[in-house]
Amino acid sequence: MKKTLLVLALAACLAPVALFGQAKLENSSGATIQVSIKGDKSYILYPNSSLTTSFRSPNGQVEFRLIALIAGSQKDLGYFSRALEKGKLVITDADLSRPGAASFAALSAPAASSAPSAAARAASAYPSASSSAEWCFIIDSTDNRLEMLEAPFRGIALKAGQKSKDSVLVPRGLLQTTLLYDIDPDENSTGRNYAQAVYSKIIVQSQKFIVIKEADLLFSSFSSGGQRKFILVNKFPFKVVVTGGPFAGAAISPDRRWQGKKELMYGFNSYSIQYIRNGIKYQANWELIATPSDCVLYISPETVSGEIAIK
């Protein structure tokens, strides 16, 4: 009997935790937002992104402050109280047009109470810069052109020595983001040889610039150990010619092979290919991840992207 009572008591204590676990945040709006949860911390979410917080709600209710970051300026929308839906707090574009309360205290104040004074509102306001992020410019100090592939930098493309036109809000702490770069130096680029690298640095308080250096690209450009024999297999139902990289000039008939000795870089590689389909000439990117054990490489619909029609 005592064991039964003990089990029932534990179940009663753990039920709220099981029912309301770590809250999830989802930003389905088109703006970058900062959500500051009462009793927890601030979270930055980029457009159409989500994350799991460290906040646990014992009753399925969450109080938070919402700031939208639009075109480099902040829009303080105020304080809100909302019930979680299936453990999730979703922010939509409609939420960005609804003003909230002036403070957390005002959320539970009687409806007849007067609004806080302007001085009280100013005292509780956030500083002009985010308390957990920095506005940073991207600088390409390499000899190569590069394109940022992930949020918050997605769409930024720079040539050697160039700085991004606009700053980007970047959370403090460890930053790891993927970039695509032209293997050939900017002054003699063919536009056909690309590789990827992962930029990894700690963003600190008051940081204004993120400088991408040659050393940030090196790890993705290690040689595969000199020239080795490779076999290329064309899985397309039409002829393909490789126009960039170490295999430039390789022309392969449908379901046929090309072989030769070449030097390939470990990691991600992207090379241009061209082909004619239904009388139209196309160019596309042949993408592969090279490892020391690779000797047969496939050109197939699964390894080709970015197709464009050319003259």
Plain-language structure description:
- A hairpin with a 2-residue loop joins strand 5 and strand 6 (73-83).
- The protein folds into 3 domains: 14-124, Immunoglobulin-like (Sandwich), CATH 2.60.40; 133-221, Immunoglobulin-like; 228-309, no CATH class.
- It is mainly beta and 311 residues long.
- The strands form 5 sheets. Strands 9, 10, 12, 13, 16, 17, 19, 20 and 22 form a 9-stranded antiparallel beta sheet that branches. A 4-stranded antiparallel beta sheet has the order 3-2-5-6. The chain has a 3-stranded mixed beta sheet with strand order 4-1-7, with no helix packed on it.
- The protein is elongated, with a radius of gyration of 27 Å.
- It has helices at 2-19, 104-108, 118-124, 215-218, and strands at 22-27, 32-37, 42-45, 49-56, 61-70, 73-83, 88-91, 133-140, 146-148, 157-158, 168-171, 173-182, 193-203, 209-212, 228-234, 240-242, 251-252, 257-262, 267-277, 280-290, 296-299, 304-309.
Q: Which of globular, elongated, flat, extended, rod-shaped describes the shape?
A: elongated
User: What string, H for helix and E for strand, traces the elements in order?
Assistant: HEEEEEEEHHEEEEEEEHEEEEEEEE
| DSSP summary, beta strand count | 22
Radius of gyration: 27 Å
CATH topology descriptor of the largest domain: Immunoglobulin-like
Instruction: Identify the CATH architecture of the largest domain.
Output: Sandwich
